[in-house]
Amino acid sequence: MKKITKGFFSLSALALFIPLAAQSADVSPAAPEGYQLEQVLIFSRHGIRAPLVGYGDILAESTPHQWPVWKTEGGLLTPKGAEVETLFGKYMRDWLAQTGILPAGGCPTDGAVFVYANSLPRTIDTAKSFVSGAFPECSLKVNHQAQIGTMDPTFNPIITAKVTDEFKQKAVESINQHAGQGGIDGLNERLKPNYAVLQQVMDYGQSKVCTEKKTCSMAEQPNTVNIVQDKEPGITGPLRLGTGASDGFMLQYYEGYPLKEVAWGQITDEKQWQQLEEIKNLYHETLFGSSAVAQNAAAPLIRFVSAALVGTPDNNALAADAHKAKVAVLVGHDSNIASLLAAMKTAEYELPKQYEKTPISGKIVFQRWHDKNDNRDLMKIEYVYQSTDQIRNAMPLSLSSPAQRVVLQIDGCKIDANGFCPMDDFKTAIAKDIQGQ
Are both 310 and 386 inside the same structural domain? Predict the structure, then answer.
């Protein structure tokens, strides 16, 4: 298949024409006889939130239509988001019980489950919703920084290296190289059909940006990479505008807005959704897919994951509690998942029945298994997520009506037919990722 761009977020051109209903996620095969699950680390994106962006800016000026006013304040978890995450939590508890790592009922023993969220309201509330679904009536603590509303350094995907002219040049060159032929400009050229769909949906030709500012083609506007020390990397231009708009439309769909109100009723088929969401997917891919940015932005998180799974030192005292727990649950953001998977050099993957590459409430599930037959430890990594329809319809999940599951493979940890790689290889691989920082 012809790929639109390189990297683990890449979408095939053919996939744009395949209805989501015709796709199915790989079913996670049962563990071979003699395999015992011994430790799990779940890294989750937060649940459905109200849009982050303020519509009094470029997004408002890019359409003659009015953006909807949400009942939930911008950036906060919605009641629907809490409901969906609670259902997801129940499913994960059912799966954990099936593997035997936790009992099917009752509350876990002290220290068996560790929960840690970024210190923003939506991540804390997502973690609480997960706990209420997985461990109802149990008094499980959700760990987070005391100062709510500020980013916890573990979850903050910022550039921590000293941003010299040389560093900035290398970062921009790395991003351009990862963007494919022609760099950022070439990516813009390849996204022309996507921008055309977005302009149609937004009625861009009748917007203030076009009629007054005479900027009537998104594809002709430049994208600019912003690398600033102690700031999250960013891109300004049509790629960012498209990301904000597409994110807003997808959240409307998840929240359950009537279809005639989602994107003002202008998204009418699967192909349009794929093309719009590809803009957002490629925004994250372009920013975090390059090693120069990903290794730096994900550094604290990789160290924490390594400390929790392998026992390596970490300056976050909570990592020791995560390492002792049978099940650790971390709740952060799509930027965390994008940078973490990129830094670990994850092989290209696709998520059937989803438009997003880092979907709402989606979870990267690290699993350490022990093979009793050969007395060896193994690692398995899966993306466990809900389909767009499961989220929109708040479908109850169970082992018979499960979430979607896709096996992931990181560089240096080759998987077998069942998705397992030797734990020693995983340790070596994650050690190299840390050293690369």
Answer: yes
In the DSSP assignment, the letter for residue 66 is: P
Structural domain span for residue 130: 14-51+78-159+298-435
Regarding whether 21 and 119 lie in a shared domain, the answer is: yes
305 and 192 inside one domain: no
Q: Looking at the domain assignment, is residue 57 inside a domain?
A: no
Task: Considering the candidates 46, 178, 323, 333, report the single residue annotated as catalytic.
Answer: 46
Our count of domains for the chain comes to 2
57 catalytic per annotation: no
Single pTM value for the model: 0.92
Which residues make beta-bridge pairs with 368?
Answer: 39, 379
Instruction: Say how far apart CA 27 and CA 23 lie, in whole Å.
Output: 12
Co-location of 20 and 151 in the same domain: yes
Same-domain check for residues 344 and 400: yes
> Which of 152, 314, 334, 371 does the annotation list as catalytic?
334
* 8 A C-beta contact, residue 308 and residue 361: no
- Residues 266-312 have pLDDT tens digits of 999 999 999 999 999 999 888 887 777 888 889 999 999 999 999 99
**Helix and strand tally (H, E) in the chain?**
15, 10
| Domain assignment of residue 69, yes or no | no
Give one DSSP letter per residue of 173-224, joined into a string: HHHHHHH-TTHHHHHHHHTHHHHHHHHHHHTGGGSHHHHTT----GGGSPPE
Question: Token pair of 115, please?
Answer: 């929960």
Q: What's the pLDDT tens digit per position in 74-130? A: 999 999 999 999 999 999 999 999 999 999 999 999 999 999 999 999 999 999 999
Residue 371 annotated among the catalytic residues of the structure:
no
120 plus 188 within the same structural domain: no
| Nearest by Cα to 58 from 184, 175, 215, 195 | 215
Residue with tokens 């231009």: 237
CB environment 299-332: b (16+ within 10 A), e (fewer) = bbbbbbbbbbbeebebebebbebbbebbbbbbbb
